[in-house]
Amino acid sequence: xxxxxxxxxxxxxxxxxxYCHVPEARFDFKHEIDHIIAQKHHGPTILSNxxxxxxxCNMHKGPNVAGVDPETGQVVRLFNPREDRWDDHFRWDGAxxxxxxxxGRATIDVLAINLPVRILARRALAEEAxxxxxx
Length: 135
Fold this sequence. Notes:
Elements: H1 3-12, E1 32-35, E2 50-53, H2 55-61, E3 66-68, E4 75-77, H3 86-89, E5 90-93, E6 96-99, H4 102-110, H5 116-127
Antiparallel strand pairs: 1-2, 3-4, 5-6
């Protein structure tokens, strides 16, 4: 991946994870570039298939493109930052991310976005005014 492509992904994302919205600037290391459709599933390394992703979200997402909606038990595709509007699938309840659609709920579940340690980290960031839970 070229440095120019990586920088464009970061800029487009506003330097925050496109899944959980945690800002990159509050970490000692950069967020990762996620292939929305993993390379092992023939996802290309092009701007339209890339998203900025914190290490936690990327580790849990792995090559997954789908998950189980914990509310309905149905298999659904995961949130795609290039095709979906974040606000259509998620909303904040304090530092807890809520899925308002099957896609949102499955994404939160697969990416383990609401693990207690991650909620605590978002609360701390919000208290320091480094994390906007309205976005």
